[in-house]
Amino acid sequence: MSEVNKVEITCAVNGEERVLHAYPMARLLDALREELRLTGTKEGCGEGECGACSVLINGEIVNSCLVPVAQVAGAEIKTIEGIANDQKLHAVQEAFIQHGGAQCGICTPGMVIAAINLLEKTEKPTEAEIRDGLAGNLCRCTGYMKIFEAVVRACQEEDVKV
Amino acid sequence: MRAYLPDYELRVPKDLEEALAFLANEPGMWKPFAGGTDLMVLLEAGKLEHTKFFSVWNLAELRGIEVTDESVTLGALTTYTEVRRNSILQEEFPMLCVAARETGGIAIQNRGTIGGNIVNASPAADSPPALLAYDAELELLSSKGARKIPYKDFHTGYKQMKLRDDELLTGIRLPRTTKSLRHYYRKVGTRKAQAISKVCFAGVAKIEDESVADVRIALGSVAPIVLRCEKTEAVLRGKSVDERTISAARAALINEIAPIDDIRSTAKYRLRVAANLLEDFLKTVRDGELN
Q: Which phi and psi angles does B166 have, rounded to 5°?
């Protein structure tokens, strides 16, 4: 079987133009972690069930383990590294700290991305909307209540824009 | 074992014409790749057998929801998120919106497409039962021309469908004839989010003078294909929804479906749940509670 060559894919990652050199079917998750050293995005299940690899593409949350790099040419990607503004944490990140929303930390970047995506799309989400917004993210430590409380708290902050 | 990436091609055509040329020039060689929510899972598991794909994700021609007086047509790339957010679908095709909400989580709903759900041809897919109950029609296109086919005739066997090697699914047309119907959709899975169905039931009915004037029923995960249950419908048409009718319909449904034992459930459980859902559907539409 003839082998496919790597391709050059230009996209914006956390506001900076980046060029990825990868096989077209390579996972965005691997390109972020291994080419760009953006290791904040985690791999959990690798099959779109757990949400640990969540990133925003053009403002919409996706599982980066299910996105081939050939499909992100020209896209604007935001990872957990692009959430804090210099030293100032995002309100969602502050709320996770205050409410003990993180334990082992593997699900946390994806949870924070999911919470931010929810707040961007839904002004003053109801509790049911928060549960729906986080339903694609699994956590094996917290039992979810502290994460849920953190997001409820973050919803009460004024400054929730990315 | 993970896939060997250099084996896999994923080209990105700039428009629909270029995409159709892949199919026309080397029929059977190339397959479309949409949101990747199923194909990437197979790739990671080392089970993606086909190796040459072209991406349809950026084809604007396959996006958008078009509304006329007679119908609503979903571009094949309409995502679950777009379905959930559309007010006409919420009002006239609510089962499709419930199906979209109950498929995966938000991240999957942003990438998974209705066209992909159809062509991927999983018998456990959640939007096809709703599409079957709404009498959807599929729009297929090749470089030779376009054709339409009723969705209920599309799937012919497990992962088999009436789609030629040179054809692309471009749209899903829903006739706007649902206003007098009562809608009932229920997915039974292990948990609410992310789970794949054990049984999925979609039904619409028109009740006049306490009897069934019209009914359409479709189920997922109970046969090699998502199944429109026309024999069960025939038992119900014209009848009043009483215990005798319910019992006859349950018997008809159990004969019409052919569930199997697999990792998610057993045939026995699925038969019982499917019949119970049918009974719940009939009582719900009879008593006038809407989904």
A: -100, 10
